[in-house]
Amino acid sequence: MAPTTQTQEAPLQPTATSQAPKPTESSPTTAAPQAGGGSASEKEPKEQKAFERWTRTLSLITGIGLSQEEFQAEIDKIERKKCELRKEQLIKTSPGVRFMMNNLVKSGCPLTKNMMECGPCDNTKAGGFSKDHGILLCQNGFFSKKHQEHTMIHEMIHMYDHCVFNVDWDNLRHHACSEVRAAALGGDCNWTREVRRGFYTFTKQHQECVKRRATLSVQGNPKCPSRDAAEKAVNAVFESCYNDTRPFDEFY
Prior knowledge:
Helix 2 (68-93) crosses helix 4, helix 3 (95-106) runs parallel beside helix 4 and helix 4 packs across helix 5. This protein has 252 residues and is mainly alpha-helical. It contains eight helices and three strands. Keywords: Hydrolase, Membrane, Metal-binding, Metalloprotease, Mitochondrion, Mitochondrion inner membrane, Protease. It is a peripheral membrane protein.
């Protein structure tokens, strides 16, 4: 979706010696080391830290011992770390992500890492693009790495459109065209994604999915007065924008 739209890495054996003399009061002895190579006093901090990690993990699982704010903060931290790790992996390995990043460079709008951030969103969104702030990846909105990959490509298509076609996001037809292209090219409407949503047909499934997804996104535009207005904008631009696969040669 567009801004304004809210669219993993030999010891030696001792030899026998003569019996050692018994220690006397004037000859101090040293304590034998504990098994494992460390003294009891050295082990205590390690065991304490291990216990603290265990209790923290238990608290996260059960929620016991944490306030609602502390519990949510811990969940946010875990989700952000996972999202950022996937993002770095996809930037290095995903053909679609790398293709879009290269084309953004060619278009004069290079995407830097600080222009694609992970953050929490409401449960209806997976990502968004803002002409002023870049791309937001909804760290709590992904059900798989592939889902995050599709979202990254989707939002980069919005960024590409904004750079190349000078999109006016307040214009519903402009917005609709970019949403149609992003839904068609970003992987949002592949067959497995549609089955997961409970939508599947034997004819024109891809086109119907693109229309539905684009309409939902345009409907979220603050300038859009109604769903009917969103549908009209999508229908008006659908044929030309659906067939415009730039910068891809065909649907990704």
